[in-house]
Write a structure and sequence with these properties.
Strand order of the largest sheet: 1-2
Helix content: 40-55%
Number of strands: 2
Structural class: mainly alpha
Length: about 150
């Protein structure tokens, strides 16, 4: 990832989610995103923001649930879709995200958006941030995320 940070991020987790949903639904392939897949994409975005910029992308806590990392507020916003595709939100405003945030989200989507929800779920189950938090029944630790995702940078 080749861009440089200009400061601390303060994206809204719902705008991050809307960015991914709009990106998926604007693809020629017409990829659809379920709540499970969205949770994992947002988790990966947070992890790489911490690793690259030493700053969280958003302030919401990430919990270790049975099927991987989950941002509770985001889950509840989209739970009515069940395991189906989430509609593209009407309220999306790309200008609410900085160019650096958009660049990060584009890169995360390009790498991880190609995977199914269950593939992403299984990937998170093999990574220390989720495994450590799930073992203790709590929240994913920001420092554990930072340390782990720094090892994933090329």
């Amino acid at each position: 990832m080749s861009f440089l940070p200009t400061g601390v991020f303060m994206a809204d987790v719902f705008q991050v989610a809307a960015y991914f949903l709009n990106k998926a639904n604007s693809d020629d392939a017409g990829d659809l995103i379920s709540n499970l897949k969205l949770q994992k994409l947002v988790y990966y975005a947070q992890g790489f923001a911490l690793a690259i910029f030493d700053s969280p992308l958003f302030n919401n806590a990430i919990e270790a649930w049975q099927h991987g990392p989950v941002i509770t507020e985001l889950y509840h916003r989209f739970k009515t879709f069940g395991s189906g595709a989430i509609d593209t939100p009407d309220e999306f405003d790309a200008e609410s995200l900085s160019p650096e945030e958009q660049g990060l989200l584009d890169e995360v989507y390009d790498v991880y958006g190609q995977f199914s929800a269950w593939k992403l779920r299984n990937m998170t189950h093999d990574e220390p941030p989720w495994t450590e938090a799930y073992r203790t029944g709590g929240y994913v630790n920001e420092q554990t995320m930072t340390d782990y995702f720094k090892t994933q940078l090329n």
